[in-house]
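Chain A, query sequence.
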Amino acid sequence: MGQKKRPRYVQRPSGIAARGYACVALERPTDPVNVGHTLRAAMCFGARMVIIAGATAGLHVNRLQTDPQRAWRHIPTLQVDDVFDAFPYNCVPVGIEMTEDAVDLVRFTHPERACYIFGPENNSLSADTLARCEHIVKIPTALSLNLAATVNVVLYDRLAKSPRKAPWAGVGGEDIPAP
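Chain A, predicted structure.
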């Protein structure tokens, strides 16, 4: 007697209100204070992972005084040689850099699955990283922001532009009204 064939895909709505995710990647960070503030921002804005590539020797994420929540205990935090060594599957690399051809953050539409890559405090993203990014985005400021401030602005912008559901509403719940 043959077995009944089951449908390949489950036909039920997800319990997750918003689709996609954001990751943060730091390329060659030099200041532990900014790394701690970045971990804090990642936790505050719901980033799903933090990648730290090519950090200066002596950076210990478990000892950062500017990360009082100990975000590394709650968000996967990977230390690698190259940002792309830990890159999630089917995730869009978005370089944050002040270049002539960069898209202004105000006009940028965030990908559903994005990894935002930030350069070191005293330098730029490497040419190799810039070449591998699908988007290059800049924040329209008169001067460059420090690393942690830049991470906060980009993650907030993603949150502000995302369609959100009211936390009290379940699957398919009501939209949060615009201010």
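The chain has three helices and seven strands. The longest strand covers residues 21-27.
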